[in-house]
Every structure is written in structure tokens, then in C-alpha cells.
Known about the structure:
The protein is an alpha/beta fold. Helix content is 36%, strand content 14%.
Amino acid sequence: MAELKVDYNYLGRTGLQVSNLCLGTMTFGQTAVGLPGQCDEELSHKILNRYVEWGGNFIDTADYYSGGLSESIIGTWLKQQQRDRYILATKVFAWRQKDNINRQGLTRRHIVQSIEESLERLQTDYVDLYQMHCWDNATPIRETLLTFNDLIRSGKIRHAGCSNVTGWQLQQIVDLNQQLDLNPFVSLQQQYSLASRYDEFESFNVCKLNGIAVLPWSPLKGGALSGKYKRGQRPELGTGRIGWAAQDAKRGNQACPGWDKLEGNERIWNTIGKLEEISKAKGKSVAQVAIRWLIQKDVVSSVLIGARNLDQLNSNMGASSGWKLTKEEMQQLNDVSQPEIPYPYENIWRVNKDKNNRFLPSYFVEDIVD
Length: 370
């Protein structure tokens, strides 16, 4: 279908070009906790094929997803493809064997064993992007970074990245890689959406200064920004993951927010209202507008989207190219979704200029004399 296409960006400061929508595959394979909308192998392969028809070339998974089944499903599909057409990313951290205390974290031992198992499941001899799934307090970061660098030198991974880290942790990764003259981390996969913007305060500034690609996950905040949920109408079971989480307060998490937290969040509902307004004016879906806002952020290289069926995939892929949000529409969404700015950022960003064009925090202005 030649009329279907996507746009591409460079992955940070690498020469790799990736589609601006990345296919996240956490929905591939059944899970023990019974999450709704998981895809069996047949449907997963259909989603992969359709994503490729759109021009997508960037696929993300993790050893943890569905206990490794997500990687295995991708592997059986990848075996039938031309491997070098795709940028393949996976992650390492979580326990692989609950009865083996050393099968977890970011130790050299666990990373080396995990990459071998991931490569076997994926049926390939390398991954393009290998990511630490989160920070490991128990393992010195030096050990982790040296191990990732060794995997790059051995050819088993092409690039390294990280996910779910704080600003100071990311800066430590950057600094230590530079001090040890190691291959730099090229990406940060982080929760980012109109409903979750806190990384703009720290982490994304580190990314901008160092050419690190931001790869947002949960661009619709578990479906909250899809437009299908209405204020004051508690979702029923079967209405997506938020409906699933609404049945039990213990089920809510960052990727699948509980209804009780959403219901009283005025900022989110105001944001949804603005999304609905803009979507009607643009002739696009609410979800497409929410994803497009991310695509147009200068720090973002590719946005991770998940899909539970082909219709959902096709709809989300429609955010990739052929239209844009105007500068005014971007600003409207920025303003309505802006979280409270804490100290010291409020002092730093709410600035005034003196006669020498210096930026000064507002509380210093009264001391300026001509």
C-alpha cells in the first residue's frame, strides 16, 4: 500500500534512521497477571506485518515482557524477514528465575547471560539497541557500563541505552562513559505524554545537552488520553487496561493508571478536553493528536506505540506523517497540560532580563538599579 508511509528521524547522534513511531511489543504473548488485550502469536505477526507495510522499521521489546514470550514471538517473525531492514531493541534487568537470586539486575554476570538468551529467543546474532530497563542500586554503574561496552565491542549489540532513570542517574551514566572513554548511551526510553511531563525538568535537558534520543513510552497514559474515557463515568471491565485497573485499586500503575487517580485529576481532564477540541478541528482522533504532540517535541526521536489489534495500530500510525499541529495548537496543549513547576525550576525559568540582557530570577529584579 504505497500511500501509507511514515517519517524517519535519526536515533540521537547515531547515523541510524528510525521511524518516528516505534512498535512496542509488551502486548505480545499472554501474561500470568491476566492483562487484557494481550496478543497471541498469530495476531502479533499480523501487527508486525502491518507495521512494516506502513514503513515502520523500529521494534522494541524486553526480556521481561510476557516472561520472554514477546521476544520469542518477534524471533519467529524476524526469522522470515530480511534482518538488516529493522532496528531491533530489547532490555535487561528483571528477574528471569525467581528461585535464582543472581538472575536479576545489571551485574556483568546477569547482563551477559541475558543477552545470550535474548538473542536466542529473537533468532538473531545482534540487537541494534540494548537498554538497561531501570537503575540497579545494588550494582556499581561502572560494572554495568563496562559490560555494555564489551557487548558493543563483541558485536552482540550495536548501541546501548537506558530506561526509567532519573536526571542525576542519566548524568552519571553520561559522565562515567566519557571518563572511561566508553561508547556513549544513545537513548533514554521514558514515560512521557501530555499526562506525564516531569522529565522535562531534568532528564530531557541532559538528553538535549548530550544528543541522547528520547523514546517516549505510554504516550496515551495507558489509554487515558485516547478519548474513550469520560469524566464521571467509571469504566467497566473490558474497556481497556484502565477498565481492568478500575476493578481493583491494587492494579493501578504508571502504565495502567487506576481510575481513582484519574477521576479527580483536573489537569488530565482539561487536557483531554483540549485534545478533543483540536482533534475535531484537524479531523483526527484524540489519540492521534496526543501522539503527534510528542512527535513534534525536538528531543523525541521515536514514540513507542502498542497495539492490541490492527485497527488500533492503523489509527495510531496515522499520527506519523502528512499533517502537523500548528505552533498555536502545540502551545495550547503545552499550557493546559503543564504540571506545577517546583522549586528551584520555577525560580530558574520565571526570569527577567536586566539592561545587560542577563537573565535573572524574578525575586532579584527589585534589586536591579539603572
